[in-house]
Write a structure and sequence with these properties.
Strand content: 15-25%
Oligomer: single chain
Largest sheet: 3 strands, parallel
CATH architecture of the largest domain: 3-Layer(aba) Sandwich
Number of domains: 2
Order of helices and strands: EEHEHEHEHEEHHH
CATH superfamily of the largest domain: Response regulator
Number of strands: 7
Number of helices: 7
Length: about 210
Amino acid sequence: MEHYIPVGDDPKGIALSSGFNSRTECRRIVKFAFEYALKNNRKTVTIVHKANILKLLTGLFLEEGRKVAEEYKGRVAFNERIVDACAMQLVINPWQFDVIVTTNLFGDILSDLTAGLVGGLGMAPGANIGEKAAVFEAVHGSAPDIAGQGIANPLALLLAAVMMLQHVGRQDLADRIDLAIKKVITDGGLRTKDLGGNATTKDLTAALKQQLV
């Protein structure tokens, strides 16, 4: 929630923003992260917070996170990072992380940081998973500024499709697409413009079709 506080003749002299975390929702998202780790053979969940400064707002998140972690002790490992330190460590050594769970603002920032580590938003799939429905999409959205130019990287959308197939229990189909993507990127060396290459959307799609087995 945001609003202005007038100061003298300036009606917008101070901008004020208030954040809210509820104990119930903090617990729910952390529990989802641990369940995701179990289902996907992940070893560690890292809780990212700023409880050293935002002692109440993210302190509540960390408090509930620690309680949930105890329930999974012996099944999924747990650690915690302050968000600024996490950002630095993601750049220096991203391999130390497995599953990260955090609050909305920190998650938005860190997800773009990690997208940069793998080539940009053209390589970043996204998922919005609820209790009764799920939506899968490329993190960059519809990208209307490059629509129709034949230069869009289709991999983020295809990787989102991989996540969707995994979500509905079709790991077999997900593996086929995922393997084809890895072959094209690592073995074929085909790249769209955002990845430093000259391939068009059609070029990359044709190469992926050839690699599907």
